């Protein structure tokens, strides 16, 4: 009996890992929204260690909650935002500006 192969058997494409090198992050899918290309990357709950504020609903994403990180493809990683998965999927159905209450934290 021959040993089991754990490598893919198909031909390897050169551009498979090109996106990882450009952005520093792997596993990002590309989506178009508001006429721009966005890189969208899912984050597992175990990988989330900080509080984030979702720009879709203006609520906190606590540590340990799975969510999505999205950034414009050509703006860089400094502009990435952490969204709830449902908020990212419903982004086209939301109003443009989310109104905060007077005593809401501003971060």
UniProtKB/TrEMBL annotation:
Compositional bias (Basic and acidic residues): 12-33
Location of region: Disordered: 1-33
Protein name per UniProt: ATP/GTP-binding protein
Species of origin: Actinacidiphila acididurans
Highest classification ranks of the organism: Bacteria, Bacillati, Actinomycetota, Actinomycetes, Kitasatosporales
């Amino acid at each position: 009996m021959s040993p089991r192969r754990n490598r893919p058997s198909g031909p390897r494409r050169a551009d498979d890992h090109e996106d990882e090198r450009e952005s520093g992050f792997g596993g990002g899918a590309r989506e178009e929204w508001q006429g721009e290309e966005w890189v969208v990357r899912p984050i597992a709950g175990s990988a989330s260690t900080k509080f984030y504020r979702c720009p879709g609903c203006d609520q906190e994403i606590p540590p340990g909650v799975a969510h999505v990180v999205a950034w414009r493809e050509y703006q860089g990683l400094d502009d990435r935002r952490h969204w709830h998965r449902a908020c990212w999927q419903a982004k086209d159905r939301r109003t443009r500006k989310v109104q905060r209450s007077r005593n809401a934290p501003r971060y």
